[in-house]
Design brief:
Elements: H1 4-7, H2 20-31, E1 38-42, H3 49-61, H4 77-83, E2 90-94, H5 101-109, E3 122-127, H6 134-145, E4 151-157, H7 165-168, E5 172-175, H8 181-194, E6 198-199, H9 201-210, H10 215-226, H11 228-232, E7 236-237, H12 239-242, H13 251-263, H14 266-278, H15 283-296, H16 301-317, H17 325-335, H18 402-407, H19 409-419, H20 423-427, E8 430-436, E9 439-444, H21 447-455, H22 457-468, E10 473-478, H23 481-490
Helix pairs in contact: 3-4, 5-6, 8-9, 9-10, 13-15, 14-17, 15-16, 16-17, 19-22
Length: 523
């Protein structure tokens, strides 16, 4: 039995599964002969980017395509050459293998100058385009800026955030979506029918769910299951038999992850997500399994809250450029401020004197284990004395400058970790913007972090007093990307070896999330 995803690869637009929004635009361009000179296909692997690129290449060069139509005939010499990968006018390049600028010049820059040998268009397909080096992108950019009329470029990538903006701006961009469950099921049933094998409905459901919206993965697993019928001459495969080929269950991993959520242990949970990524486990599928497991064990409101947060993050996962980011944000939201630990806040010899009224009391040891999600341990909120309080020495009543705050920002972050391990995570996703009327504004791009800072305002004000020796108020605000970036630029750089806490910087595109108390960056 040949590889199913190759055997049943769509050869015309009508055979494509999903991506309706892309098919319609491309078909309109082809039928009207108004074809862009460069296309950028972005999205997860195995959902049709290369397949559509080849159909597009066939359609623009098809010898039998009628005026006003968009489908290739698949019978003319041009179509057959492309199907058999023998066309001299369709150049496919794997950027993961050919990253060097010399290869780009050889395959594209030098080649594009010559007119097609036999066809109307010379089509260049660059797969895994994000793997190109910067010099390679620069060489490609010159060609994209002034492309010859006979050339069409198609760039395919799974990591759009690694493509330079200068390249993106010169391409017609299409974002591919994961294939829906119903579309996957219909496709799998069609293939099984053509192969003459009947599968239990539960088998089809399991294949579709485990494929994480990737058609190629679904067809690959289906091929393994259908091969079971070859040795036994059976025409129907049950769930018990299919379990031999189906991906292993992540139940034990799910239980371990949920235990971290119940304990409000965000550090271990974030490390766990890094482990999942390293082992190649689908994060989207894992979220589904966690939700299903929690649904089975609903016993208290805290479990319901976890499900609600995970469902919300699952909905935004399809728009995330980093697969693990939605789950990491869910961890922060679920664990919240509950990682607080009892600390001794008696000032050391270098700490400015302060009134007893400004000290945070050491919390009493919890009467229940942290594993009880309904009663998380938290640092009590103790109001600080007002600026007019006579107990504060007069030398601490002045308003510090923004420069002084910026110079001490890393000290403030380090001090925050002594009070609450989740507080630095919140603070470091913000940037000090300005101080007016004794109020320091800290800007965030996401309301989640702004709300968390404002809930810990008293603690933060106490920390600033300890470090700066001056009483200020704290206010978290949401700002736009440019304001946020300007604030971040003002922060001083420090040597990594001197940094006591992890750095987390989530941009508007959420390009990366860094380690949190032992975790590490995954790109």
């Amino acid at each position: 039995m040949s590889t199913l995803y190759r055997k049943y690869r769509p050869q015309i637009f009508a055979e494509l599964v999903g991506q309706e929004h892309i098919k319609k635009v491309l078909q309109n361009e082809i039928s009207s002969n108004k074809i862009a000179h460069a296309f950028l296909f972005s999205g997860p692997r195995g959902i049709g980017k290369t397949t559509i690129a080849r159909i597009l290449a066939k359609a623009v060069n098809c010898e039998n395509r009628k005026e006003g139509k968009s489908e290739p005939c698949n019978e003319c010499d041009s179509c057959k050459e492309i199907i058999e990968s023998k066309s001299l006018d369709v150049i496919e390049m794997d950027a993961a293998t050919h990253t060097q600028v010399d290869k780009v010049r050889e395959h594209i820059v030098e080649n594009v100058r010559f007119t097609p040998s036999r066809r109307k268009y010379k089509v260049f397909v660059i797969d895994e385009a994000h793997m190109l080096s910067i010099p390679s992108f620069n060489a490609l950019l010159k060609t994209l800026e002034e492309p010859p009329a006979h050339a069409i470029f198609i760039l395919a990538t799974t990591e759009i955030h690694k493509i330079p903006e200068t390249i993106i701006s010169r391409c017609q961009r299409f974002d591919f979506h994961r294939i829906g469950l119903n579309d996957l099921l219909s496709r799998l049933k069609m293939i099984a029918l053509k192969e003459g094998v009947e599968l239990d409905e539960k088998v089809l459901q399991a294949i579709a769910q485990n494929s994480d919206g990737g058609l190629r993965d679904a067809e690959s697993v289906l091929g393994q299951i259908l091969s079971l019928s070859l040795s036994s001459d059976k025409k129907k495969i049950t769930m018990d038999e299919a379990n031999i080929a189906l991906p292993r269950s992540n139940l034990n991993l799910v239980k371990e992850f949920v235990s971290y959520l119940i304990k409000k242990d965000s550090g271990s949970a974030l490390k766990f997500v890094s482990r999942l990524t390293e082992e190649g486990i689908s994060i989207r599928r894992f979220i589904d399994e966690v939700i299903e497991y929690l649904r089975e064990i609903i016993t208290q409101p805290s479990i319901v809250k976890m499900i609600e947060v995970l469902l919300e993050r699952k909905q935004t996962a399809q728009f995330s450029k980093i697969d693990e980011l939605p789950l990491e944000l869910a961890i922060v939201e679920i664990c919240g401020e509950s990682e607080a630990k009892p600390v001794d806040v008696v000032p050391n010899a270098t700490t400015p004197p302060e009134s007893p009224s400004t000290s945070l009391p050491t919390p009493e040891p919890p009467s229940k284990s942290l594993s009880t999600p309904s009663e998380p341990l938290s640092v009590p909120s103790v109001p600080l004395s007002s600026p007019e309080d006579s107990s504060i020495p007069s030398k601490f009543k002045n308003t510090p400058s923004l420069d002084k705050i910026l110079k001490n920002w890393h000290n403030i972050l380090n001090k925050a970790q002594e009070y609450n391990q989740s507080l630095p995570l919140t603070i470091n996703n913000g940037a000090p913007l300005k101080i007016e009327n004794n109020v320091l504004q800290i800007g965030f791009q996401f309301p989640l972090y702004k709300d968390r800072l404002n809930k810990s305002r008293d603690v933060m004000e106490k920390i600033c007093f300890d470090i700066l020796g001056e009483k200020i108020s704290i206010e978290g605000v949401v700002v736009n990307e440019s304001e946020f970036e300007e604030g971040k630029k003002k922060l001083p750089k420090i040597e990594p070896s001197k940094e006591k806490i992890s750095s987390i910087d989530i941009s508007a595109e959420a390009e990366k999330i860094a380690e949190s108390f032992g975790g590490r960056v995954i790109e």
